Amino acid sequence: MNIIFLAHRVPFPPNKGEKIRTFNQLKYLSENNHKISLCAPLEHKNELEFFTALADQYCTNVAYGKLSNKPLRLIKGLLTGKALSITNFYTHNLQNKFNAMLGTTNVDAVICTSSAMAEYIYKSDIFNSLDKKPLLLMDFMDLDSDKWQQYANTSNWPMKWIYQREANLLAKYEQQITHNFDTSFFIADAEVALFKSKTNSSGVVLTMGNGMDTQLFVPAAKSPENEAPVFLFTGVMDYKPNIDAVVWFVENVWSGVVGKYAKARFIIAGMNPTPQVKALEQVAGIEVTGFVDDILPYYHQSDYFVAPFRLARGVQNKVLQAFACGLPVISTSMGAEGIDCKENKDILIANTEEQFLSCIEQLEHNLIFRDDIKKNALALIHQHYSWQGKLQVLDDVLFSKIKNIPI
Questions:
Q1: pLDDT tens, 127-141?
Q2: Neighbours of 371 (CB within 10 A)
Q3: Domain 2-211+387-402, CATH among 3.30.110.70, 3.40.50.2000, 1.20.1050.10, 1.10.3210.10
Q4: Angle at CA 18, nearest 5°, toward 14 and 24?
Q5: What global pTM score does this model have?
Q6: What is the distance of C-alpha 298 from the center of its chain?
């Protein structure tokens, strides 16, 4: 099949959640003899090499369109009454290149990553004029309208107004997409259920979960010998849910940790730390790395992974990575959402300061329990989180639709 990916960011290198997900879809389909074309906006010149890398390995065609100045894109959204997420990823140059691909290639399917990329479908005169239209698949990943609603609920004016506007506009847009597209995907059953509870859409909405590369993420050959427990959090550190998570943990839990383990350390590893995140280094035991070339050594030098999420939804890849690296994970209920794990078997759940401290104490003093948590989580990854298994639903949808077989 000839498949076009309309991606909101170039999915390479696969070093953050949405890039990891789209890259593995693209790789999976390419290795199963589909011809892949990629269209994505270009925000920075250094991304050009990423398009080249994908063209060399997985894509028959790649096309990019340079985005205009970001403030101008956002102002345009405000002036035109569109969601800022839509105008933030839209460029006429990429629209023209996408239209050219449709006009010169017999395209069987178009896969959009995030609701923002549906705009390229709706604004394509070529697509609308085709006698035989390709399949339209939308990978929402997460329910973005609910994410913005959470932001609105926890913010003050004027950001509260902006976030509420975004939530309202995207909720309508998501419903429109599921009506117009052949099939839409979310990352977890909970996202699908939440979407269906909030809309009356009759479109096909399915779960397509995230997998894990167990050749890239592996346990350390030897457990670290730290004089006091070392805790880890990874992620892009200008992303609001990540910022909120680490700030809450440091402000509410960390003093209790160092009160018992004076030389404990908390490593916050990830690109683009905001000033609020960098300021956490003023607290004893906190390390903020910024961008790192290889995240694996940080998993290997740590004793525990913490996922103190209070915002956003969907499967946290960082938790799956920690499982694959054999790290015990202490997470809020939200951080574990969408992962097929069991409390006190594969993961520890803590939603308050006291619960986090209790879980840490349990892991520190019950070595058998700690080893069981590590082994169970690692087994869970290998048995249920291969990319090939998670992406089987994508094959099922592509071929059942092509053959007009109901699903």
A1: 989 988 999 999 999
A2: 13
A3: 3.40.50.2000
A4: 55
A5: 0.89
A6: 20
